Please model this.
Amino acid sequence: MTSKIVSKNLNLWYGEKQALKNISLEIPEKKITALIGPSGCGKSTFIRCLNRMNDLVDKIRIEGEVFYDNNNIYEKDVDVVELRKRIGMVFQKPNPFPMSIYDNVAYGPRIHGMKNVDKIVERSLKDAALWEEVSDRLDHPALGLSGGQQQRLCIARTLAMRPDVILFDEPCSALDPISTGKIESLMETLKDNYTQVIVTHNMQQAARVSSFTAFFLLGELIEVGETKRIFEMPQMKSTEDYITGRFG
Ligand code: ADP
Ligand code: MG
Model:
């Protein structure tokens, strides 16, 4: 199995506080990897390191390496805009721009001077399983969509940039169960073409969608493996305690 992203001895401090401790983790290509662990254990911090979203945070210090297709993304000459095009991110709270449905998806392609924007918009909305619900009102404001539709729109916006990797940080925690189910089946359909990483505090969700699961605790990577094995035969006591609900 090929690794798409590899972190090696990744350490991160916010000021004096160390939020990531020596994280070495391989993200397999074209699989879904889930990151689980109690609130505050560093899941978001870690996932944001994978496309350098932490760069602009004040008083941050990062040591170690993150390889994307065998290139260290923390090298000085890396084009961060291009990197974030290749490694897109979907956030907890759907964040469409205050413009039309069409313009949301067209936004990135236009900025990057991509051709055939109409086609890109249609294909992205289809791939995000939203086309049928919005094709007759592409000029309506995106903020008029339901929360679940807005989240699929954000996924369409990410897909429009033709990414290679999609990072999801708790993409369903603001959604109802039906919308959550739609996002999960969407991830399933994207599986063959994209490498996906999902942070989730919902262990059933991790079990349902992912092939691999990594358990984080207090800034450390405690255990990683095939999802079935992690849930059925955790090797570490703290993993077992977490998945059986004995703490946070
Ligand atoms: P998780 O996503 O697992 O809930 P986070 O990565 O958000 O965890 O946070 C890990 C730790 O880093 C927490 O103690 C949190 O308070 C701290 N932290 C997160 N973001 C910042 C920031 N921008 N500045 C300072 N501390 C932060
Ligand atoms: Mg988080």
User: Anything to note?
Assistant: The CA atoms of residues 25 and 237 lie 20 Å apart. The pocket of magnesium ion (ligand 2) is lined by residues 43-44, 199 (CB under 6 Å).
